[in-house]
Amino acid sequence: MTLQLGHYLALSMVLFTIGSVGFLVRRNALISLMSIELMLNAVNLTLVAANRWQPAMTEGGSGLVGGTPAVAVGSIAPHGQVFAFFVIAVAAAEAAVGLAIVLSFYRLRKTVRTDAADMLRG
Amino acid sequence: MLLLSPILVLAVGGLIVMLIDAFQEQEGGLAMPTALLHFVAAAAALALWQRGVPSDAGSLVHGWLAIDKTTLFLQATIALGGAFASLLAGGYLAEHKLDRGEYYPLIAFSTAGAGLLVAANDMLMVFVALETMSLGVYAMTGFRRTSARSAEAALKYFLLGSFAAALLLMGAALLYTVTGHTDFPGIAAALQAPSPASGAAADDANAAVLAAQFAIKLKISIFAMLLVLVAMAFKVGAVPFHMWTPDAYEGAPTSTTAYMSVVVKAAAFGALLRVFLTVFGDAANASISGGWPAVLSVLAVLTMSVGNLVALTQTSVKRMLAYSSVAHAGYLLLGVVAAPHATAGIAAKSSVLFYLLGYTVSNAGAMGALILAGRRGAETVSYDDLAGYARRHPAAGFALTLFLLSLTGVPPTVGFFGKFYIIRATLDAGYTNLAIIALINSAVSAYYYLGVLVKMYMREPAPGATRAAPMKSFYVVFSLIVAGVLVVWMGLMPERWLSLAAEASGARPAAAAPAEGANNGGAPTPL
After folding, report:
1. Which residues of chain B does A117 touch, with a Cβ-Cβ cutoff of 8 Å?
2. Which end of chain B is more exposed for a tag (fewer CB within 10 A), N or C?
3. What ipTM was reported for this prediction?
4. Fold designation for A5-68+76-116
5. Using a CB-CB distance cutoff of 8 angstroms, which residues of chain A are in contact with residue B152?
């Protein structure tokens, strides 16, 4: 058996689900940040795999199961790959701002638990 | 290059403001340059509007951005909101000993991101612009570093904002998977067309396989649409994705609250309109019975009702304004629901644009009046703080009254006509139930807005309580005067402004709607 686009999509969906469930149930701000990173990596995997299988998906090929990746990487427009680079770069900027906010919260409250963030409510 | 000038002015100007801050001797004094920058950006958008936008303007940037009158209208609105926020920051930050220079470049960069967001014509552009805007606003929210409330607001806003961005990205990635496009017209074309080879397919078996594959692709695209919709609902603060809104608005410095409630909201609605009208604007996706308008109409009803009902129970004016901004997002969503309608669609879209402009001046004014009422160490937050305020300080009290009346929707303020046009468009599109719910909500909202007026005019502060008195700030007074003039002017002559919004929505020639779609048809050239 060879790997098909469907396998990559399934894996990235699993990663995305783990990430979003982790974000929703964990109460540690750092774990939440990591969960978001996991979701972004699932996105990157989808983008890169979809780029490789793009002719199979869009030109009436066999789609999610079967089908072959593009023979040569240069033969298709690398939109998905480039998108992934943008995601990586922006995620780094986001992590920088996010960690600064977590740090500032920690300085004032001596904890990174999000359930300690309970001063604003109503 | 000229067509990009509203964005370029802000981006380059933000850098210059940052340099001025780095080299000047003492802190402060950056509010006016930053506000000027925003006024210049707004003027650039208006000048481009006057000059007329060539129909192939988007090809200047290879289709990454759509530069049309909708874009320019929203860019001008956003720049105006950013100018108000800069001026308010000049008063607020100085009064509360927060006046550090990095706030002003953050405003300029965020507004540049917002200006890109309303122009974005590609999923990648939407993501980059959204993050450019949001990262600055996260930092502005947590700007009061000694306050645990500010840090908490920033933390909540950041975590939910990043989560929403991840959902948006997954939607974009799945759309790319099934269509091979990230640009809006390309995705839309790939989702509408039956499989490209179906006409040429000689044997039925092959055609059946292709049809089955297209069905799978459509299913994935609908899931992707839901992800994008949830992400957008987070950004505009629609119930049930509004949890961050009241907390972020309340904990943030009030000038940031003003910025978030006008600029971020207008930009998010601009992106929402473009994504859903361009990418998912086909008959199946945009039908009220089973497409995204059905989902959005439920969200709109929830958003209006929950926003208004919870606002009733608030004791803090700032938090009340936060819930009121949630409720206003609900009214705006009604316009978006009606926007794909065949006949009433353009009127609905222009009512959304008009409402965004009116809401920008009304809400920036309300926030400004609230800022004006809070001196150092005595920031006005609760209803009780304002007791007797308007009787002691008639002018400052009148300012807050005017903007709250506009938010309520009392004529002759712009707020009345904003709601009027949205509800009329909803009725024209045939959604009578939604219009009735909006009217009921509007009546409910009067209770909590007028509650502030009752406190200000008819109550006396409790003995020993601090008495609210206006602070002295040229910046804040100036922005209140500008906002007040606009609120009344747009309320007295709404047709003029509405006709601008209608022109922005492409109403002028009768056959504008299909022609616009054709203009956007150019796919971006490969990288």
Report:
1. 152, 155-156
2. N
3. 0.94
4. Helix Hairpins (1.10.287)
5. 105, 109, 117, 119-120
